[in-house]
Amino acid sequence: MKKIAIFASGSGSNAENIINYFQNDAENVVKIVFCNKPNAYVLERAKRLNVPTFVFGREDFYHSDMVLNELKRLDIDMIVLAGFLWKVPDAIIEAYRERVVNIHPALLPSYGGKGMYGMKVHESVIAAGEKESGITIHYVNDHYDEGATIFQARCEITPEDTPDTLAEKVHALEYEHFPRVIKEVLEKI
Ligand code: GAR
Q1: Cα–Cα distance measured from residue 150 to residue 148, given in angstroms and rounded to the nearest whole number
Q2: What is the pLDDT of residues 3-37, one digit of tens each?
Q3: What is the per-residue pLDDT across 72-106, written as a single tens digit (0 to 9) for each?
Q4: What DSSP character marks residue 142?
Q5: Nearest CA to ligand 1 atom 6
Q6: Residues 68, 105, 77, CA angle at the centre, nearest 5°?
Q7: Which phi and psi (to 5°) does residue 139 adopt?
Q8: C-alpha span between 161 and 173 (Å, rounded)
Q9: Minimal CA–CA distance to 175: which of 24, 11, 18?
Q10: By alpha-carbon position, which residue is closest to atom 7 of ligand 1?
Q11: Alpha-carbon span 75 to 69, nearest angstrom
Q12: CA angle in degrees (0–180, nearest 5) for 16-98-135
C-alpha cells in the first residue's frame, strides 16, 4: 500500500476530492493531511473524512525536522501539495525527489512564482485579458512553480468571466484531473 501525505493551507476542496478518490483504492491511501494554519477549513474536512491531521508552524517547518520526521515515521511515499502556500524546505524536497507534486491554477510558466496563488492568479489572468487558462500539475523542485510539468488542462475564458467564475472553471478541472494524475505518479514510484 502506497501512502500519500497531502499538504494544504486553506479550504481544502482539492484535499477532500483526493481523499474521496482514494477511499476505495486498494493500492494507495491518503494517510495524513499536513496544514500550516490552525484554523484552515481543510482540517474540518479531514476530520469529517477520518484522515489524521498534523498542524505545524513556520519555525517547525523551516528550523526543525519535525515535519520530515513525521513523514518518515508514517513511511509516506508521496507528497501532494493541494493549495499549500509555503515553499517546501530543501531537506523534504531532497528526501522526496520526484515524489512531491503541486497543482497550480494557471498554465505555467505564465502566472506562477512567489505570491501567485489562489484568487490572485485568477485576478491577474482576467486583468491581462487572456482567452484561456487552466491547471498545471508539476513536480516540485527548489524553485517556486518551476519543476517539470506532468499534466496541463485548459479552459476557455469568455468576456463575461470574472475571477470568481474563472476560479470555478479551474476548480472543476482540478477535481477532474488531479486525483487521476496522482495515481499515475504513484504507479511510477
Ligand atoms: C487551488 O485552486 C490550487 O490550484 C491553488 O489553490 C487552490 C486551493 O483550493 N494553489 C495555488 O495557487 C498554489 N500556487 P482548495 O483549498 O479549495 O483545494
Answers
A1: 6
A2: 999 999 999 999 999 999 999 999 999 999 999 99
A3: 999 999 999 999 999 999 999 999 999 999 999 99
A4: S
A5: 83
A6: 25
A7: -70, 150
A8: 16
A9: 18
A10: 83
A11: 10
A12: 50
Amino acid at 120: K
Q: Could you tell which of 9, 11, 14 is best to mutate to test the pocket of ligand 1, judged by most ligand atoms within 8 Å of the CB?
A: 14
Q: Which residue has the cell 474563472?
A: 166
Look up 104 and say whether it is catalytic.
yes
* Residue whose CA lies nearest to ligand 1 atom number 3: 83
Q: Which three cell numbers stand for residue 138?
A: 508539476
- Ligand 1 in reach of 104 Cβ (< 6 A): yes
**What are 34's strand-pairing partners?**
7, 54
CB of 103 within 6 A of ligand 1: the answer is yes
**Dihedral, CA of residue 162, residue 163, residue 168 and residue 173, to nearest 10:** 110
pLDDT mean over 40-47: 98
CA–centroid distance, residue 68 to ligand 1 (Å): 23
For residue 142, the model assigns a pLDDT of 82
Task: Kindly state if the Cβ of 12 falls inside 6 Å of ligand 1.
Answer: yes
CB of 169 closer than 6 angstroms to any ligand 1 atom: no
pTM for this model (two decimals)? 0.97
Expressed in angstroms and rounded, the spacing between residue 104 Cα and the centre of ligand 1 is 7
What distance in angstroms lies between residue 167's CA and the mean position of ligand 1's atoms?
A: 9
